[in-house]
Write a structure and sequence with these properties.
The protein is mostly helical and 265 residues long. The protein folds into 2 domains: 144 residues, no CATH class; 69 residues, no CATH class. Helices cover 69% and strands 3% of the residues. It has a two-stranded antiparallel ribbon with strand order 1-2. Strand 1 and strand 2 form a beta hairpin. Helix 3 packs antiparallel against helix 9, helix 4 runs antiparallel to helix 5 and helix 6 runs antiparallel to helix 7. The longest helix is centred in the C-terminal third of the chain and has 31 residues. The chain is flat, with a radius of gyration of 24 Å.
Length: 265
């Protein structure tokens, strides 16, 4: 269990190696986590596309201050944008407003299209900022950071256990599937196939519960008392305070200007 709860690398260092952290990764992870959450809340509150685009440009600029690989980042963005494209297609036809064109008897409104674009820009801005500010934080480091931010300990433990054992359950699933194939199982649209798949997931659930009990017993034997000691040391420096203040002023200005624009028009 030491590989799960021990602090095997400095906070902010990429998990893939021992290289020096990026500019963003050199700040206190608590500031980065709070800034990411605050940015997400503030950007969702924006109503004008102009200011949402401004937030997106800020998030895009932050990406270049990290060590994020460009290709992997674009893949993650594309996965999220797949849902945005569906929304872009549907919202103009479901939102009342000024008709732009008709398709199969349905009118597409200008207001619906603008609303879809606004949601798309805000979503991309939030995802980019999350990827940027949380880059370099391993799951263990993120769990320790959330714990120090006074997040509920049960949720932190659940997150860390999920990260640790999701791959174990995935391997267990593949072993069960391989055992079914070796016995001649072939998926078809039959009652036997549905029943066999039900047995598969039932057995996976049973084995998961058995593993959970074994892990709990092993933890108790090692003196587990409901919480894990934090063996890392986080120091809030002046530059972290400057980042927090500057970031707060920036997103506060965006929201304030957005509200002033709404009230003015």
């Amino acid at each position: 269990m030491s590989h799960l709860f021990g602090h095997d690398q400095p906070l902010g260092v990429q998990a893939s190696g021992g290289t020096a952290p990026s500019f963003v990764g050199s700040f206190d992870p608590r500031v980065r986590v709070v800034a990411a959450g605050l940015f997400a809340v503030m950007v969702v509150a924006l109503h004008q596309i102009e200011f949402a685009v401004g937030a997106f440009l800020v998030a895009l600029g932050t990406v270049f201050l990290t060590d994020l690989p460009l290709r992997l980042t674009l893949k993650r963005m594309a996965a999220m944008d797949g849902f945005i494209i569906v929304m872009l297609v549907m919202l103009p036809f479901t939102t009342p407003g000024t008709p732009m064109f008709s398709l199969l008897g349905a009118d597409a409104s200008k207001e619906g299209l603008m609303h879809a674009v606004l949601i798309g820009v805000r979503a991309n801005a939030v995802v980019l900022m999350m990827l940027s500010l949380l880059s370099g934080l391993s799951p263990v480091a993120l769990g320790h950071t959330l714990y120090r931010l006074k997040c509920p300990a049960a949720l932190v433990h659940l997150m860390m256990f999920t990260v640790r054992y999701i791959s174990v359950l995935h391997d267990e699933y593949h072993r069960l599937r391989m055992a079914m194939k070796l016995r001649g199982f072939r998926a078809r649209n039959t009652f036997h196939t549905y029943r066999s798949i039900g047995y598969l997931f039932g057995m996976l659930l049973v084995r998961s519960l058995e593993r959970a009990e074994r892990v709990l017993e092993a933890m108790k034997c090692r003196g587990f008392s409901g919480h894990f000691p934090m063996i890392d040391h986080l120091e809030f420096k002046v530059r972290d305070g400057m980042l927090a203040v500057g970031f707060g002023v920036m997103i506060g200005a965006l929201v304030l200007l957005d509200r002033m624009y709404v009230f003015a028009y």
